[in-house]
Specification:
Elements (H helix, E strand, L loop, with lengths): L2 H13 L5 E4 L4 E5 L4 E6 L7 E4 L6 H11 L5 E3 L1 H9 L24
Antiparallel strand pairs: 1-2, 1-5, 2-3, 3-4
Length: 113
């Protein structure tokens, strides 16, 4: 599977799940649909499950390709209250953009660096 194929499949899946739901790609990385695109992010090291910082998938694709090609067959998901709260505070719903005025796609409470 190519990165583009993976990203297209993941985007289709994420558009069909509830806002605030993340695809749990690894123990430390998640992805979600922000209303316009898939956003990839690391989780904090403190075990809180909160989002730390965004990253481009191509930074890890060669390392994660085999894993993600298998993962997409039986993906796992979590609901992240911080994404739900962030979306609700901006009036987001299924069809609205999840980006904020600074162009970030993650909650502004220190999540994106």
């Amino acid at each position: 599977m190519t990165r583009k194929e993976f990203e297209n499949r993941l985007a289709m899946i994420l558009q069909d799940v509830a806002f605030g739901t993340t695809a749990d790609l690894t123990d430390r990385a998640v992805a979600w649909w922000n209303g316009q695109r898939v956003v990839y992010a690391y989780l904090r090291d403190d075990g809180s499950g909160r989002i730390e910082a965004e990253f481009p998938l191509d930074a890890h694709w060669s390392e994660w390709r085999e894993w993600l090609s298998e993962w997409i067959v039986e993906p796992t998901f979590s609901v992240r209250p911080e994404l739900q709260e962030w979306g609700n505070s901006r009036g987001n719903s299924r069809g609205n953009s999840g980006g904020n005025s600074r162009g970030n796609s993650a909650p502004s409470s220190g999540a994106a660096r």
